[in-house]
Amino acid sequence: MLLGILAGCSGLSNIKVPDTEVCAVSGKISAGGNCVRTLSPETRQLGFDEFLDFLEASEEILNPDGSVLRPAKGAALCQSSDDFNKIKTTLEQACYLLKKRCTFEMQQVIRSMSDTMSYHEAQSKKPSKKKK
């Protein structure tokens, strides 16, 4: 996200900000996770096992014919909601100071970050459904 803001502010408008997925714990890790996209309204809920799979690194899985069923991926990065908000606030301040050099697209990314955090905070306050 920082690269996207800097690219937009420094005139490198040919750098496209990717639509990535952000997931957070649904209150307690046993309840799984809630995920949103950074630039689109798409959301998804993950059960406990799915959330662990999202968090952990994994090796490439091949089909019997040798084609890639699932590519390798690194472990997910984790950050507290307080730290997330600190970065968002810093980006908002930078955009305010840069005025017109902070493009509309960059302002949308910051707004999306705020919406993402609001969504995750609301989801984490919902009571979790316990399995019997």
Summed up:
By secondary structure, this protein is an alpha+beta fold. It has helices at about 1-10, 50-55, 80-100, 105-125; strands spanning about 20-25, 35, 45, 60, 70. Strand 1 (about 20-25) and strand 2 (about 35) form a beta hairpin.
If you had to describe this structure to a student in words, what would you say it looks like?
It contains four helices and five strands, in the order H-E-E-E-H-E-E-H-H. It has one domain (2-124). The protein starts with a helix and ends in an 8-residue tail after the last helix. The chain has a three-stranded antiparallel beta sheet with strand order 1-2-3. It has a two-stranded antiparallel ribbon with strand order 4-5. By secondary structure, it is an alpha+beta fold.
Question: Main traits of this protein?
Answer:
132 residues, alpha+beta, two-stranded antiparallel sheet, 4 helices
Helix content: 40-55%
Number of strands: 5
What is the strand content? 5-15%
Give the topology string: H per helix, E per strand: HEEEHEEHH
Radius of gyration: 18 Å
How many distinct helices? 4
Uncertain stretches: none
The general outline is globular
- Mean pLDDT score, rounded? 80
Oligomer classification: single chain
What distance lies between the first and last C-alpha atoms, to the nearest angstrom? 41 Å
The major sheet is characterized as:
3 strands, antiparallel
Look at the helices and sheets and give the structural class: alpha+beta
Give the SSE layout.
Blueprint: H1 2-9, E1 21-25, E2 33-37, E3 43-46, H2 48-55, E4 61-62, E5 68-70, H3 81-98, H4 104-124
Antiparallel strand pairs: 1-2, 2-3, 4-5
